[in-house]
Amino acid sequence: MVELWIDLILGVGIPLVLLVLGFVVGSWAERRHFRRLIENEEKLRGIMGFAIRRAPRDLDLAAPKLVTGSAVISVDYFKRFAAGLRHLIGGRVGAYESLFERARREAVVRMKEEARAHGADMILNIKFETVRIFGRQRGGILSVEALAYGTAYRTGHAGPQIPQS
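The chain above was modelled as a monomer; its predicted structure follows.
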């Protein structure tokens, strides 16, 4: 009878404890990362970013420079487990959606930091690339890399164009 309890604890208890621990630690780390992202996004609020290819004509653009930001975010044990269950049932995999959001936002923050270091206050033609990094198990995402890039400029406002008579 004692051996049965030991087998049950080792077979079910330890994986269950690891799963709960993965959930708690992973949720804490994700919340902490989102708080830090919000703080950094607020600090970089003055750097405008646009997906448009050309700036309005009344802007005086100077010192163009390609800026990039890259982030690799790893999935935690619980998210991997939850996503595996979701693959059995089908549907939206929310665990991976937050992973991609964190990677994308972190890449944008890093791109804006590079633009600020260059003295720029505007980034045009922003593009994104994402890559899923798979593990040994088929279909299991281990990490996500997001790359954000664009052309940073220092701007001056030339004012409205007045035709000369």
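The helical segments are 2-43, 77-89, 94-118.
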